[in-house]
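Batch job 17 of 40 flagged for manual review because the log was empty.
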Amino acid sequence: MNLLQTLVAFVIALGTLIVFHELGHYLVARWCGVKVLRFSVGMGRVVWSRRFGPDQTEWAISALPLGGYVKMLDGREQDVTHLPEAELRREFTRQNVWKRIAIVAAGPIANFLLAIVLFAGLYMHGIEEPATRLAQPAPGTPAQLAGLKRDDVVTAVNGVRVAGWSELRWQLVRAAVDAKEGGDARIEVRRPSRGTFTFTLPAAALTALDLDGDVPASLGLAIALPPPVLGKVDPGGAGARAGLRTGDAIVALDGAPVQDVGAFTQAVRAAPGKAIALDVVRAGQPLRLTITPEPARADDPRKGSVTVGKIKVELLGRPDMIVVADGPARATVKAARRVWDSSVLTVRMIGRMLTGDVSWKNVTGPITIADYAGQSSRIGLASYLSFLAVVSISLGVMNLLPIPVLDGGHLLYYSLEVLTGRPVPERFGEIAQRLGVGLLVTLMALAVFNDVARLM
């Protein structure tokens, strides 16, 4: 069932982004007076089509779903010598260079506009998310060494205000990218009954982060959670063998009070194969049990594969939640700023990859995107729409890269035409086109390799 939901979520996301991208090209081409012959969702052989409109434009679905295109009347691709003068005036290459630039740029711009609309809608509707109140940082983590403590409420990162956990994570990712240039991260917190403080996370800790992983957790930042109360207890797990039951409240571990779910989880994970004394309250009565977590392998964001303890019980309790909502004007401005920041961050990440400062493992492909589509759809509609906006931004940025065969490559040609006053030589364009195809195939192969490596 999860696989089916993932596939459906991926197809809907991909189809939506392709349609909006190509609609950008189509609408501006029509506005500029260029005749559009075909609007295709997908590449390769046409499997379904219908003709509509005064120009009888063919609207088609093609066999290969990874992409789409708008086919215009273009003398480079069709024989136009037999057409009347009225039709020739609507041929793409006969338009002035600024119209051609507008038509090509319209696709990526449509992706950015879609992301702004989605983010603005989410910000106006309001998003329930965990507050920025922190759990006690684990010993030795950058957050603990910086002086952050349990119940600190993060209010800003590098001077940018944060209202919820997703905003905090986003600003930490930005800070990690900025750290490549030697910048520390200033974390402003409000400490209950003691006022506001500023702490510093050093650049060295930020540059070591895996930006594709859980950035806050790698720094030692976690959401403050309530004391642990047990939900479902797996009959075959260490918890059931120790006598734990649904509804038990864990109050102490080896005589030390348990602050919250996170602290209890960390203590269990740190004790594989070791006996632990648990103080439990069951139906209002205190009870002491002894439990031995089972050893299991797990991935640690800082240490790689490690052995941890597991007891196979469900821990109940929600963190403090807030609803972040804005009016239409503020939501739109906030959405536009988010799209701009995300675009700049993507470009900077690409630059870091080219210089070797960031691993090429961060290049992801359709398998990872499909996985994220499925995960976000299972969380809820707001999460899925946010995912859709993020991917739309990435699609817009990638299409603006100056690679032949992409929109950015064509924009580069037309920019040179503006500067020199004459079109790029046809022979040069053919060679660049072949190189662009080769580069795209290489990047796609790398993305698929990284996807498979993550799965394994």
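Reviewer: the log was empty due to a logging misconfiguration, but the result itself is present. The longest strand covers residues 36-52. Unflagging and moving on to job 18.
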